[in-house]
Structures are given as C-alpha cells and as structure tokens.
Amino acid sequence: MNIRFLYSLFIVLLGTSVTAQMQSFDLKDVRLKDGPFKNAQDVDFKYIMDLNPDKLLAPYLLDAGIPPKSNRYGNWESIGLDGHIAGHYLSALSMMYAATGKIELKNRLDYMLSELENCQQKNGNGYVGGIPQGKVFWDRIHNGDIDGSSFGLNNTWVPIYNIHKLFAGLNDAYRYTGSEKAKTILIKLGDWFIVLIRPLSDEQIEKILKTEHGGINESFADLYTITKNKKYLETAERLSHKAFLNPLLKKEDKLTGLHANTQIPKVIGFEKIATLSGNKEWSSAVDFFWDNVTQKRTVAFGGNSVSEHFNPTNDFSGMLKSNEGPETCNSYNMERLSKALFLHKNDVKYIDFYERTLYNHILSSQHLVKGGFVYFTPIRPNHYRVYSQPQTSMWCCVGSGLENHTKYGELIYTHLDDALFVNLFIPSVLNWKEKEMVLEQTTKFPYENNSQFVLKLKKPQTFALNIRYPKWAENFEILLNGKVQKIELTPSGYSTISRKWKDGDVLTIQFKTATHLENLPDGSNWSAFVNGPIVLAAKTSTENLDGLFADDSRMGHVAKGKYIPLDKAYALVGEKSDYVSKLKELGNMRFSLDSLELEPFFEVHDSRYQMYFQTYSKDEYNKKQALLKQQEIEAMAVEAKTVDKINCGEQQPEVDHLYKGEKSNSGYDDGKFWRNTRSYIYYQMLNKNTQGKFLDISVLDEVKMNDIAIFINEKPADVIGVEKKSIRINIDKIEVVNIKITAKNGNASPKFYQLRIIKN
Questions:
Q1: What CATH number should be reported for the domain holding residue 717?
Q2: pTM of the model
Q3: Helical segments of 51-158, H only
C-alpha cells in the first residue's frame, strides 16, 4: 500500500507538464443524507413547488401575444424585471431534479419549456422573453438607438441581465436533464441575439454593456460548448465588457464603488472564455479579480459589498453601519467562479473559500424551517435579516436562492481520471457508475469532528482516494479499517491513499478544530469568532423585527426595523489573547461568552444578532466608546428627521424611486455615488402623511442654477435656498413628489449624490 501527501496534480503530455483537468460529478450521481444541507434542500424543494409556473410564464405569453393562463406575479415581476424569475426557475427545477430524482420537478420543467417553445414559435424569429414592450425595446437596440446607464438601458430595467437568466435556465435544463427542447429553444434564442447585435459597432456594444447585463458572455460560451460553432465563442468575446476587463488585465484595482453583482458574472464569463480559447491573459485577469475580492473585500461569512457595491478595501465602516450588508447573489456568483477555478486549476484555496461561503452565507440565507431567502445579510451589530415569501417576493436573490440549495452535491466529490477526491465533509452518497463504485460518507460535521467513508465495490479496484486536509483542521488523522495510518500530513492539500480497494473498506478521518478571532480586511478593531470554517454569532434580541417575512413592497427585502446604536453593541475589552480563552464550550457547537451564547451563524434565525465585536484594551475603551456614541447620536438625529431619501447612482434606491433619464452618467467619487445628466433625470419620492417640509438636494461638485432647471410635479420648483453644494426646495403639503431635473443647453449638470425629504 502506497500512502503519500499530494501537493499538486500534473500529467505529462509530449514531454510538457500541464495542469490536469479536475472533473466534477453530475448532480444526479450524488445524494445528500440527513444533515443541515439535506434539510436546506428539502425546504427549498417546498418553496419551488409553492411557486405557480403560469404566473412566472405570464410575461412571456403577454409579450408573444398569447393570452396568459394566470396573472403575473407582483413585486419585481411587474415593475420592469418581468420574467427574470422564470429563468432562475428553469435552473432550479433542473438542478433539483438532478439532485433528487423527483419526477414532479421534471414534469413542471417540461411544461415550462413547452410554453416557452409556444411563445418562441409565435414570435417567429427565435426571440422569447418577458421584458415589458420587448419587441419595441429590441428594435431600438438593433437600430443603434442606445442610451444606457448602470441599471437602465433605454429606460428599461437591466433587460440583458433579465434575458441572461433565460439563457442560463435553458442551458441548465439541457445540461442537467438532457432536454433537447431546451437546447433547441436556446440555440434559436442565441441565433436571434446574434442577428440583433450584428449591425452594431464595438463602441455601441460597449455602450450596451455599460448597463448591468448578467453573464451574457458566459451564455454564448456555453452555446459554443454545446455546438462547437465558433460564432458563439466569437459572440461571447464580443459581449465581454472591455471597459471593466482592461483594468483587470493591467492588475489595477478599480472595483471600489462598482456594483458588485454586475461585475462577478462578467468575470465568470471571462473565465469560461479564457478556458475555451486558451487565453492566458484573460485567465490572469480572472485570478487577479478573485484574489482581490476574496482577500480584500470579503467578510468572515464569505459575503462582500454594502448596499450592493464594493466598499473601499481600507474602510469597512460603511458596511458595519448599514442594514444592507453583503448580498446573497454576490456569494452565489463567487461560489460559481470559485468552482470553475478549482476545476481548472486544482488549487485547494478555491475550495477553502467555497466551503467558508457555503456553510456561512449560502446555508444561512434560507430560513431553515419556514423557508424564504435572504437578500442582505447585515454585519451591523444587533440588526437582522428579512426572508422572502413565495407569493410576495420576486427579488434577484429569490432567483439565485432557488438555485443555491439545489446543488450542494456539486463539489463534495471530484475526480481526475481514476483518482477520487473528497473535498467537503457533507453526509452524502456518491454513485460513480463508470467505476461501479459507491462511496458513502457519514458525518455530523461541524458538530462532530470526524467523517467515515465506506466503499461498496462489485470487485476490488486499484485507485487513489484523496481526502482534503483543510488548513483549519488540527491533529488530522486517517484510519483505514480501524488502523491509524502513520503518515506525515501537511494542511491545505490532500492526503492520498493509493491501494487495491475492496468492498466494505472503511476510511475514517478525525481532527480537532479551534476557535480564533478574524479581523475585518481593513485591519480595524472589529473581529468575528470562527471555529474551523464555521462563523459564530450570538442572538441578541427579538425586538422590532419589522417585515421579518417580506411583503410585496419594492424594498421589502431590506430590514427596516429600528437601528440599535453601535455603542450599545457587545464589545471585547481586555487583552486580545484573553478573548478566545474566555469562551466556554457548551457542546453542539455552542459557546458561552459571559451573558452571550455563540452558535453557528447558519442556525441564527428570527432574531437580531451580533457577528462582529469591537476589541478594546481597557485603557482605550471609554474614550473610543464615547466617540462612537457621539457619532451614533448624530447619525440617528439625521435619520429621525428623514421621511424619504435617494442615494443617486445606486441601483436599488434609484429603481425604488422610479428613476428615468436620458444622456445620464453615474459614478463613485470621494466615497459617494452620484448621477448627472446632459438631458434629464427623474425620480418619484413619497412624503408620507406630508410630514416633510423640504427637499434637500446635495451635489459633489458645485451648484450652478443657470445650468439646470428643477420641476416638482411638472411645475417649477419652489427653490428657497442655494449653497455651493446643496439646494433646498419647499415641498410643504405635497405627498407624492415627482422630481425632474433638466440640463440647460446640453451642459452637464452637477453630480447629484443625494435627495432627502426632511421634516424641518
């Protein structure tokens, strides 16, 4: 028997060493056993089945001129992103069917595909979509009439992002279920899109790609993989956003202030194109992006961004203060990117990140009993999360949430030729049909630090079984049929046993984990407790959990309950070396910390919580707490007198306030987002119960009233004050405030960064 530690994997072809291609198993080859992940899968299955396919299909039938069988869903599905959930739903049905084999999922998928096929045939040109007034919109694009901003293309809410979900759903239906109908619809849709953009110049394509467009480049790379027709790979390259790619090629960090989940899908596309074309420069750019996001912009539980945007790498204070912490869609896509990189590069660092994010963000983003998906996960101490509901919530994180919990089996095991790799310790059964082998993994990790593997073979076989040795595991041991193997082990790699295996062989691993404090990436004094790969948090209260289960309001995904001042949060005071030693183990991954009880964050629901704690020496505690208290008093005072506000240039606040505009640009300067125009911008604000008296408009540069005109409800605004960087408008007794700002004589307006209705 040969036992060795595997540092890296190489094959030799024609005398040249190249990295071998790791292979994943199909979802249908892996079945989850009882545990947190199987529970999450079961809860997701119920949510999937609670959705009405006819409601999801209604936008597509309406656009094709076919009477719908049901009214469409409300919320985001009826205010501009009509049809986007249906694309995610195709993916979720396909992957859940592969992961469970439940025929009702396949039946529903087939029904959805038949209805989409009918719509495509009725349209007659390969197009199928649910975008409002889609035919008019696409004709404008085909004719080169393009006016785009970050989230609006010709005043349509992210239409290419929307149709990308359909591309991805059709691809998944073919990939996971072998549906030829899905493949046919997909190819026709792809061919229609190629014809659509054929007349456009590269400059016009870049103008289109300025607006969030999902991973449309990946979709055409997938079409190339399916058909081997080079026109699809050429289109994928053409639809790759060069203005974003070029700084990555130069290893320049230009991410701060960018909308995070606009960028990550682009990079997934870059990675796939680089792999298919052998483009090493693009591959290097992808590496730079992944390293930057995971090492400099990611918090302990695996998430990134604040209010959907990448925050400065040297200042996470905005995230700590916000109720709009990391977005689940970001982690969904970073997991997809990490999976692709792991399979192509065989580097365990990608699994380390994947595992941390899987346990702590993805698993926690679904209510473990009642169901419902989380959009924002605040790290603000003593705040909480909001959960979607099947009939009221149609957010992007519902779409990706439907998918997240279907595919837990995708990376537990991989293989390289005859070598089998165990990457994650999740109770499951692998059926490797080609090798006539079944491997059953039994574990209660993270509650118990061991895992057992039992082999079932029709006849003895010689192969290498590789067990991941995580960097967080201590005293790692391997037992073969009950006997400890005396081998030298090094963490962050694989321990390999190569032998002739027989039916009934049992391999057991056991290890220890320890709790440590992990600082925020900016080096500030905020730290989280982490045990092994598991982030710990404490439930702190259940007061004012307003909107815990979301209604159908546009911003129902945000936890709008009152803020608990940051100076009221629990802090760690004393010598830093003592913080962890004060923890007392209670069993079952519970720890007491004075009056608090820490537990795995993925188990924290229906409660306010604290994940990050400030650390102080005894000498600095009083001084710094006093400063923090004063800052909180000032911030709370501003919010208390605010009736409504818009942060210009940010997607959710702008869409929530019905943004429209022409010849408008947005950006990020000096820590603030902004929007300006050479034509007009428009918002609608609500002055609830006419509490507000004034509308304050703030700019980044300088107000020049000769260059702009402001209208309230189509009448010239009653401007009562102008300063260098602010304008005050009287809105007394106006409840619905429609604001239109126009630029005069084609001059650029100032950079507006905030509109705020205040009481006095």
A1: 2.60.120.260
A2: 0.94
A3: 53-64, 84-100, 103-123, 134-142
